[in-house]
Specification:
Formate dehydrogenase, Rossmann fold, alpha/beta, NAD binding, single chain, 5-stranded parallel sheet, about 400 residues, oxidoreductase activity, acting on the CH-OH group of donors, NAD or NADP as acceptor, formate dehydrogenase (NAD+) activity, D-isomer_DH_CS
Length: about 400
């Protein structure tokens, strides 16, 4: 039988353990929609999970499809998660409070108390209330619960922090190492999901899709207005900041469009890949950015990339260029992006990452011109949720077994 990633309810047993990142070598609010536990002190070990609120229309939603395509391995040959069993149907909404990542039956059967909430921010939030008793904390990149040093110091029982997805920049890794807290993620589970989102945003910006769509909704047929900012991507120079799993996937997907592709990364790709995609390598973003019509950001957030795209670097982009950011919001200077769009230097900006998240209603990226912003959704498609839900289950199986 195939590994997880096919239509069906349960995955087969597998001896392979899903790779996780440990804290010692990591690479790279809304109120709760439903409180699922009566607040009390429990003698059972506790797993604490922060998930985004349920759909406004209720749970479960009306799904568009009955199943998801079968995925047996990732592009680099790594196998998809293969837990011993799953308690959800692939394609279900797992990332919200009622979805519970499909973990309740498994954890309670193994003697754990599961607390799932979307109440993760502000004074006296439910996550903070349960944190001192938590043995495992699970969070998503799309709805982060920040495990700061202050929070880790208040969690004497904490042994593991799991990202349901990819990324660990929401965890103070130094504090985690000092307290011997393992930091894990579900590597590659949503890399292609994010890459597809980036490609979608590139096309939407360059083709001026969103205003054209809104014109139809408004009852208009304003062809001149729609095409006055619409171009072809063919022949454009498109560059990625970082060419890891996501960045390289974006380049591969843009190659058939006849674009001229650029990248910068600390680690140069192989000559074979460069030749296959006809890539131009640059040693730094500063070298690459002035050559590009579109820049897509796919690097992790750390001290060297925070506010990398500041007013100075943005000023070196071509007039009329586009930036797509599906990495982390703080890689771009919020006000510098808005200013460049208002002044007409950048032709467009799109992304699904913000700082802070959820973004306040007065965040300038909500109202700046020529943007294609979405909530942080790129890596939490129902397809991706099936993979990172299975990956979290496999990490917990391994943890409980030990």
């Amino acid at each position: 039988m195939p590994p997880f990633g096919y239509e069906g309810v349960k995955a087969p047993p597998s001896p392979a353990l899903f790779p996780t990142l440990k804290s010692s070598f990591t690479r790279n609010g809304a109120k709760a929609s439903r409180h699922v536990n009566i607040r009390h002190t429990s003698t059972k070990p506790k797993v604490l999970v922060a998930l985004y609120p349920d759909p406004k229309s209720g749970y479960p939603p009306n799904y568009a499809r009955k199943d998801i395509p079968k995925i047996e391995s990732y592009p680099d040959g790594q196998t998809v998660p293969s837990p011993k069993e799953i308690d959800f149907v692939p394609g279900e909404l797992l990332g919200c409070v009622s979805g519970e990542l499909g973990l309740r039956k498994f954890l309670e059967a193994n003697g754990y108390e599961l607390v799932v909430t979307s109440d993760k921010d502000g004074k006296d939030c439910e996550m903070d209330e349960h944190l001192p008793e938590a043995e495992v904390v699970i969070s998503q990149p799309f709805y982060l619960y920040y495990l700061t040093r202050q929070r880790i110091d208040k969690a004497p029982n904490l042994k593991m922090a799991i990202t349901a997805g990819i990324g660990s920049d929401h965890v103070d890794l130094d504090a985690a190492m000092e307290h011997k807290v393992d930091v894990t993620e579900v590597t590659f589970s949503n890399s292609i999901s994010v890459a597809e989102h980036a490609v979608m945003m590139i096309l939407a910006l360059v083709r001026n899709y969103i205003p054209s769509h809104l014109a139809i909704i408004a009852g208009d047929w304003a062809i001149s207005d729609c095409v006055s900012r619409a171009y072809d991507v063919e022949g454009m120079h498109i560059g990625t900041v970082a060419a890891g799993r996501i960045g390289l996937a974006v380049l591969r997907r843009m190659h058939p469009f006849g674009c001229k592709l650029h990248y910068c990364d600390r680690h140069r790709l192989s000559a074979k890949v460069e030749q296959e995609l006809d890539l131009v390598y640059h040693q730094s973003p500063q070298d690459m950015v002035p050559n590009c019509d579109v820049v897509t950001i796919n690097c992790p957030l750390h001290s060297e990339t925070e506010h990398l795209f500041d007013e100075k670097l943005i000023s070196t982009t071509k007039k009329g260029s586009y930036i797509v950011n599906t990495a982390r919001g703080k890689i771009c200077d919020r006000d510098a992006i808005a200013k460049s769009l208002h002044e007409g230097h950048l032709a467009g900006y799109a992304g699904d990452v913000w700082f802070p998240q959820p973004a306040p209603k007065n965040h300038p990226w909500r109202s700046m011109p020529h943007h294609g912003m979405t909530p942080h959704t790129s890596g939490t498609t129902l397809s991706a949720q099936a993979r990172y839900g299975a990956g979290v289950r496999e990490i917990l199986e391994d943890y409980i077994k030990d």
